[in-house]
Design a protein that fits this description.
Elements (H helix, E strand, L loop, with lengths): L5 H6 L7 H11 L10 E5 L4 E4 L4 E4 L16 H4 E5 L1 H7 L11 E5 L3 H12 L7 H7 L8 H14 L9 E2 L13 E2 H9 L6 H9 L10 H5 L3 H5 L3 H18 L1 H5 L10 H18 L8 H8 L18 H15 L3 H4 L1 H4 L5
Parallel strand pairs: 1-5, 6-7
Antiparallel strand pairs: 1-4, 2-3
Helix pairs in contact: 2-4, 6-8, 7-8, 7-12, 8-14, 12-15, 14-16
Length: 354
């Protein structure tokens, strides 16, 4: 699990343990409904495995040769199995605090390097990832509250409201919806932009609701950072929807061409534009009200009218793809709207790597 595995050398790749992923799995493994339905895949040397057809059992054991030699080395417990897939799950489960966590294991005996590489490639390199937007859409089926479910519901309401600035603009499942044109944002993008103002730890919050508990409210500086947090805890989701609706209605009114465009080259209503605008929301919101308040479209407009930026400036040539373009757009808009430092300081505006 630690070092380069033979099949990686064979494939010419390196797949070291990702400590961030291990930490995420460790957190997930300790949640109420955690499970790993897919198998951990292990390769075993034939001399360390013994199958009993009468009892239908496979016994793994040390191999101790009668005479030690380079060609016939000893194999001890820690060396018996070579993990082809599942090393992050194994490492993450070391932090499991419960009594037992059952995991499916597929054991391949005496499988050669070429076949190990084929198994690894099939499992890791050829399977299609599940769309994040689909994952968020499935929260609609959940019976308990969670930050993800609330933000999903708000995204759906914004997409379906006929007067909404997001009407039919959101790809619910992450790809174009048949029969619709003008979808410029995925549900995952919209939801994740909202989540940054609702929760710092969505897994922990969801776990509390599954246990019948409610997360604690926040006050002081952290309340200024998570501006929708206390509204979420008070189950005032419609107020969060109103803030989003009014803010982006003002964006639509200020820059109708850029926001309404479904062509290439315009960034305002695409991923980078949305993320930059969501970062801009917090300083404008705190300038107009305090957490819990709902500024009107007109109030948001009063701030946006300070900028002289025109629709044709929101082009990919001016704000390139990636986090650098997003950060440039955010800082440009923040400078244009001239929000006082007490509302637009770095502790509220987010980092350039968001």
């Amino acid at each position: 699990m630690v070092g380069e595995r033979p099949f990686e050398t064979y494939l010419g790749i390196q797949r070291p343990l990702n400590r961030k992923r291990v930490a995420e799995i460790a957190t997930y493994a300790n949640t109420r409904d955690a499970c790993f339905p897919s198998a951990v895949i292990v390769a075993i040397e034939g001399r360390c495995a013994e199958f009993n057809p009468d009892r239908n059992t496979l016994t793994l054991k040390n191999y101790i040769p009668e005479t030690e030699s380079p060609e016939d080395r000893a194999v001890y417990e820690i060396q018996i199995g070579r993990v082809l897939d599942g090393q992050h799950r194994i490492e993450g489960l070391k932090s499991f605090t419960g009594e037992i966590f059952e995991v499916n294991v597929s054991v391949f005996v005496d499988v050669d390097i070429e076949d190990q590489a084929y198994l690894f490639s099939t499992v890791n390199l050829t399977q299609t990832k599940v769309s994040k937007s689909l994952v968020y859409d499935l929260f609609d089926l959940a019976k308990t509250r969670s930050p993800q479910k609330t933000c999903h519901n708000i995204a759906v309401a914004l997409d379906q409201g006929k007067d909404s600035p997001f009407f039919k603009k959101i790809k619910r499942l992450g790809h174009a919806t048949p029969g619709r044109v003008g979808e410029t944002l995925t549900q995952a993008t919209v939801v994740e932009g909202l989540l940054t103002y609702v929760s710092r730890d969505v897994v922990a919050d969801r776990e509390l609701y599954l246990k019948g508990k409610t997360p604690s409210k926040l006050y002081g500086k952290i309340e200024q950072e998570l501006i929708f947090r206390n509204m979420f805890i008070d189950e005032k989701d419609l107020l969060i929807l109103d803030v989003m609706w009014n803010y982006f209605a003002a964006i639509q009114k200020k820059w109708p061409v850029a926001w309404g465009s479904d062509g290439t080259g315009i960034v305002l209503n695409k991923t980078n534009g949305y993320r930059a605008l969501m970062r801009l929301l917090r300083p404008i919101y705190l300038f107009l009200t305090s957490p819990g308040g709902v500024p009107s479209t007109e109030q948001f407009m009063s701030v946006l009218e300070r900028t002289s930026m025109k629709d044709d400036l929101f082009m990919v040539d001016n704000f390139p793809p990636g986090t650098s373009g997003e950060a440039l757009l955010f800082h440009t808009l923040l400078k244009e709207v001239r929000i006082p430092e007490e509302y637009s300081g770095s502790e509220y505006s987010g980092s350039d790597s968001n």
